[in-house]
Every structure is written in C-alpha cells, then in structure tokens.
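Hello, quick one for you while I still have it in my head. No rush at all, and the record is pasted right below.
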Amino acid sequence: MSRPRTIPQRRRVFLGCEGESEQSYGRLLALLAEARERPVFIDAVVLQPGGGDPLAIVERAADALRRRALRSGTYVARAVLLDADKRGLAPDRDARIDPLARRSGLRLIWQEPCHEGLLLRHLEGCSDLRPPDAERALHELRRRWPEYRKGLPALRLAEQVDAAAVLRAARMHEALAAFLGEIGLAPS
C-alpha cells in the first residue's frame, strides 16, 4: 500500500499593490510559482485609495499587513510595489517611507518609472529600456505589446510574460530579484 502524498503547507507572501495592474502581476507570480511547484500563496492586496502617494501606499500596506497577519498568520515575505515617478514630489513625506517599511518588514519594489515601465523590461530585447515617465512607458509597452491594457488579468499577462521574462526583468531590478528569491522564483 502506498503512502498518501504529503502536500506542503503554502508559505504566505504579502504583496502590496498600488492598483489592479500590480495585483494581476502578483497573481501572475503566483501562477508561475505554482507551475514550478513552489508552495506559496501570494496575497496581492490593492492598497487604494492611495492616490499614487508612496507614503500613503506604504502606510496602507503596513496596516493591511498587520491586520491580515493577525487574522490569518504571518507572512514569510512582504513587499510593496511602488511607482518611482511619484518619488521626490513630497520630500518630507518620502523621508518617512523607508523607516516605516523597515519597521513593518516591507521590501520596497520601486517600479521605474511605473508599473508599465517594469512590465516593459520583461519583454525580449527590452530589459535595458528606461522610459523617462509613465506616459512614455505606457506608449513604449503598447508599441511592443499592442494588446496590453491596464489591469489585464493574470492569465492574459501570462500570454506575454513567462518565468524567463520575470527573471530577465529581475536581473535589472535588485529589489524584485530579492523578492523573487524569497518566494522561490529566483536564486536568492
């Protein structure tokens, strides 16, 4: 008689998201983890309204992280996706981001200049591209991926972004690479 197969407990991962596009990206990472038989559950949480203010988003992330951990248990990895084009607009508020993130155990993943700029670097031949602003990042992404729309579901993202694409982008992004290493999608 064979032994029943033991299913490993999924490790919980918190990913704070500025909007639905980032949440879909978190779900894509979960699909990739599942395909690679990595036992993780990525809790991709939309942190709205944040209005694009990085401090407000990190404050919401810290609060959501605390509440969810109390309710369902701790997270083995914690990160928040932030648009870098909003950094520097309010230096006094920006100065409070890193200390709050450290206290909360949140890894900050600054998307240059925004989520579409990060997605662009996933595409073949685009890992070195650095559009200067969100408008040009979206334009360049749509030029190379005409079907792209903000908020695409994870399965539609997966048509263009696979594990190799995520690793390609991570080679150009230290915080993303470290996060992927924590959740078992990249060498740590």
Notes: The longest strand covers residues 11-17. Residues 167 and 186 are 7 Å apart (CA to CA). The chain has one domain: 11-182. The beta strands are 11-17, 40-46, 77-83, 107-111.
